[in-house]
Amino acid sequence: MKIQDALKKIKEGTVPNFMIFSGEDGALREQGFHAVLSALAVELPELNLSVFEERPDPVAVVRSFETLPFMGKRRVVVVKNTDILSSAASGEWSASFEKANFPEQNVLIIVQQGNVDKRKAFVKYVSKNGFLLECSALKDAELTAYIIKAAKQKGLIISAKNAQTIAELSDGDMGTAQNELEKLACVCRGSIAAEDIEKYAVKSMQYNVYKIHDLMTAGRAKESYALVGRLLAEDSNPIGFLTLLSNNFRQMLVARACRDARFPEQKILTHVMKATGAWEFAAKRALAQSKQFTAAQLRRALEKLAQMDFDAKQGVIQLKTDLYALLVDIYMGANKKG
């Protein structure tokens, strides 16, 4: 169930005894939890709201859940920042809640870090009898729409193209996108222009990997050389930068192989996301970028990057002096027509 659907049901008067927030998007989980908690309108929260962290004693949680609300409509018990419903958590820690003798108006909310294990009996029970709220990463179009809406709430206008740029700068993470919007809202008036984003937004390492690719394929050698040099000079762990470069080529290779197999576009995107763990916008970009290379060229690029990674870790070469030459070799040898 989506958070908006849950909020609608709560507003209509449907309030289950059990709710679970699950998913990898921490910002969405946190935002959704606070929205639901606000919708529940807990009266006298200092007496009717109990919050536990991590892996609390289940007996203490059950006792709190079984306590009658004091001068209020309901009592809400929350377990936050927990992994008790993950596949790594042993046993059925939560099974006792199904048998708890709790007042019918009370609500137990579990905010799981990451995804729950849907094989667990309690998760199945809540999925059937309560709200299992999925907080998965927003899709490309959803995050772009969210950024446009959030900017509007701050009195700013932003184009879909510029919203997409912020999404890419944020590596598809809603929380990071929110932080960037907060910053831009402090310096922009009326609208957010591409120049504002370039000047004020923090460039993630992944974004810079994309920018290096664009500069290299556009033949802007001087700019790409300067950017690579700056990034390696600033980065205390240049191996991480090399890893992101390799991931970018790996995504392109999967996309190119699917394209050569004549998969439809949506199937390619789904396969890239599943095979590499890429977000939707990254999969779309990989598909577009892959057209500039053959599959053989992408495989050779990965082999060269892997060898450089090994040599750098062995101290045979220095990334800060040798990486750009390797990139020139990779891109200059590419068949731009793909």
* Number of H/I helices: 16
Number of domains: 3
Rough shape?
elongated
Read across the widest sheet, the strand sequence of neighbours is 2-3-4-1-5
Number of distinct beta strands: 5
- Distance between the amino and carboxyl termini: 42 Å
Global mean pLDDT: 86
- CATH superfamily assignment of the largest domain? P-loop containing nucleotide triphosphate hydrolases
Which fold does the CATH topology of the largest domain refer to?
Answer: Rossmann fold
What is the share of helical residues? 55-70%
Give me the secondary-structure category.
alpha/beta
* CATH class group of the largest domain: Alpha Beta
Low-confidence stretches: none
Order of helices and strands: HEHHEHEEHEHHHHHHHHHHH
Can you name the CATH architecture of the largest domain? Answer: 3-Layer(aba) Sandwich
**Largest sheet, strands/sense/barrel:** 5 strands, parallel
CA gyration radius, whole angstroms: 24 Å
* Beta-strand residue percentage: 5-15%
Question: Quick summary of this structure?
Answer:
The chain has 338 residues and is of the alpha/beta class. The chain has three domains: 3-134, Rossmann fold, CATH 3.40.50; 140-200, Helicase, Ruva Protein, domain 3; 205-332, Zinc Finger, Delta Prime, domain 3.
